[in-house]
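Handout, page 2. Input:
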Amino acid sequence: MKLIFAGTPDFAAAALQALLDAGHDIALVLTQPDRPAGRGMKLLASPVKQLAQQHGIAVYQPEKLRTPEQQAPVAAIEVDVMVVAAYGIILPQRVLDLPRLGCLNIHASLLPRWRGAAPIQRAIQAGDAETGITIMQMDAGLDTGAMLSKHIVPISAEDSSRSLHDKLAETGAYAIVAALADLPTLQAGAQPQPADGVTYAEKIRKDEAAIDWQWPAEQIVRRLHAFDPFPGCTTLQGETLIKCWSGELAAGSGAPGTVLAADAQGVLVAAGSGAVRLTELQRPGGKRLSARDFLAGGKLQVGEVLR
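Output:
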């Protein structure tokens, strides 16, 4: 098929590569404008742009797609389908109507659960046992279009957003290739999303990072997993902000925030119920370290209270 592809991060790049491997003709790639990144804040091309350039595909990077002028490069190309994956820019109805067979979205949840910006993180944070990929026929709503196919991905107790992202990216790449191979049948049997079970995955905010040790241990561990790699959870040792990247449920009790043990196995901290063993931590300006290496660079005393 002749396609336009719209996407920005690594999740989308995996789907673009799969479409190229499957022999689809990618006439144009839409991706967000280059953004400053790194310590030098140099402009960095998105993973999708980098992949498109490697394959000699034309790239278009509008800030928005609201006006006829902004839409003109898309409207100038007659294509069968636009495939959208984590693009990050709203597509107005006029753009959705341009491809012959419409626009398909690769969404990283089992719709209608976790519509919105952060479905991977919110699924882990909520303690969901499974998530997946939904291939959706896009409409003008926020992830409200009819569903063409679903692919379930279990969430393990060890999954972080980082590891679950990689599983879903691989599944999404497979799912969109399979959907395009059987598109007329899938579109004929498209299922509207049910009204029941709708949840919204709001964008992750940095101010959600702080751990409240009054929470149950299970809730804290889920948040640790959900916020890796962004923004990372935080706690205070005195006035020093420590990032807590990974942890596990452990036996222990005490006043919430109290350090119960600090050794090579981890930093054991009492929660509102149960305890959490922090296994990967980071000091300001430092690197992510195992608990063993973190403790070698500075002590946490049994009995002191994190907050």
